[in-house]
Amino acid sequence: MECIACNRRFKSEKALEKHIKYSPAHAPKDYYCSTCNRSFKSEDALEQHLQNSLAHTHTPKGNSKSFKNKAAQKQHAPAHAHSSSKRWSIYPTHHEHVSRLLEEECLHYNFHNVDTAKGCISEYDTNIMGRFTCHNDSCGATGWSSRQIAITIREYNGGKYNARVYHQRCGGCDSLSRPVLDDSYAERVAYRIKKWNGIFMGAPPPYSSKSKGPHHNDLCEGCKDGHCSALSSWNS
Description:
By secondary structure, the protein is of the alpha+beta class. The chain has helices at 13-22, 43-52, 70-76, 78-85, 95-103, 184-196, 221-224, and strands at 2-3, 8-9, 31-33, 38-40, 88-89, 110-111, 120-133, 143-156, 160-166, 168-169, 176-177, 180-181. The strands form four sheets. Strands 5, 6, 7, 8, 9 and 12 form a six-stranded mixed β-sheet that branches. Strand 3 (31-33) and strand 4 (38-40) form a beta hairpin. Keywords: Metal-binding, Zinc, Zinc-finger.
């Protein structure tokens, strides 16, 4: 049995039907920003929106919007204020990559869109890698890379999961930044879910806790929330 769209072969018709039903490759491409109530055609388009939209920046760049009076400006401010205090995010746009890795072991999970520990049956803290950008125009820093981005992976009943990714603060101005993640996110999440399902796993995905600079606990929201594995010696 073959899935022509994915160029993959399956041992039985049942396995092929299961693949078509659960694989993100056969799902409608609808990447959604709940903050702005907008949909995007691709993951890249959504990620670009999250990085560049005024509604997701600490200090909006190029915000030339004028207001008739201070009251109008104050009324407009809450649309941007939430991003400056948001300390973590979940990344449903990365589910497709996680799903592909899980399919290697015939595991099929859906993304749990509610960022809560309520109903969670398994939880694990680890670190991943990515890059942050400082959106504060008055700050001289442009951004920084981190190999110790705190993340909490959760499993829920009904074959669901999510992962809370903690933000970090700019060392220059203390503003919060949401990271752009690399492949380590999907690899770490899929690895942990496979282990929870009793699948024998060898060494964890390539990972290095060594970085060009020290990990600053006061700039890491994961450390402040008690969920950063940098607080103790890392283990798989």
